[in-house]
Specification:
This protein has eight helices and no strands. By secondary structure, the protein is mainly α.
Length: 168
C-alpha cells in the first residue's frame, strides 16, 4: 500500500524542486482540473492550455500555499479560477441561441438541450455547478476554492440552478 504524502509535505518537496513531488501533484490533480476547466471554458484545447499554465506556474514559482488556510486542491483550483478569469477577459463569450424543444424530446435530445443550456450560463455559474454537482465539492470546499464566503457559495449556487432551470 502506498502512503500519500500530506499536502504540506508534498508542497515542501515541490518548493525544494523535487520533480517527483511535482509528478505526484500532477497525477493527483490534473484529470479533475482538466475536466473542470473543459466545462468552465467550453473549449478542450483552451482547458488543456490553462491547465498547463497552472502547473507551469506551480513549478516555476512554488509559493503561496498555506496548509492552515485550506487544502492544496483548493489552492490549485483557485489558481485555475484566476487563470480562467484572465482567459475570459481575452475571449469574451458569444451569445448563444436558445434551442426550442417540443413536448416529447428523446433522452439524447434532452442531453443535448441540457448541454446547450449549460453552455448558455456564464462561466462562473457553469463552473460552480460543475464543481458542486459533478466533482462533488462541499460548500466549504467551494468557498475555499473560489475564495468567497459560505453564504455567497449558497446564493450563487441557488442563482445558477435557477438560471439553468429557466434555460432548460
Amino acid at each position: 500500500m502506498t502512503v500519500l504524502p500530506s499536502d504540506q509535505q508534498l508542497w515542501q518537496s515541490l518548493c525544494r524542486g523535487d520533480d517527483r513531488a511535482f509528478e505526484a501533484l500532477y497525477q493527483e490533480h490534473a484529470a479533475r482540473l482538466r475536466s473542470f476547466l473543459r466545462h468552465y471554458v467550453g473549449d478542450t484545447q483552451a482547458a488543456q492550455d490553462i491547465m498547463q499554465e497552472v502547473f507551469l506556474a506551480l513549478w516555476q514559482n512554488p509559493n503561496g500555499f498555506d496548509p492552515g488556510r485550506g487544502t492544496l486542491r483548493a489552492y490549485i483550483f483557485g489558481i485555475a479560477r484566476k487563470r480562467v478569469a484572465d482567459w475570459w477577459r481575452r475571449h469574451p463569450p458569444a451569445d448563444a441561441e436558445v434551442p426550442q424543444s417540443g413536448p416529447a424530446v428523446a433522452d439524447s435530445e434532452r442531453t443535448v438541450l441540457l448541454a446547450d443550456a449549460l453552455a448558455q450560463l456564464g462561466p462562473d455559474m457553469r463552473g460552480l455547478l460543475w464543481l458542486r454537482e459533478v466533482e462533488g465539492y462541499s460548500y466549504v470546499e467551494l468557498a475555499e476554492i473560489l475564495d468567497i464566503s459560505l453564504g455567497t457559495v449558497k446564493s450563487r449556487l441557488f442563482a445558477a440552478r435557477e438560471a439553468l432551470r429557466q434555460l432548460w
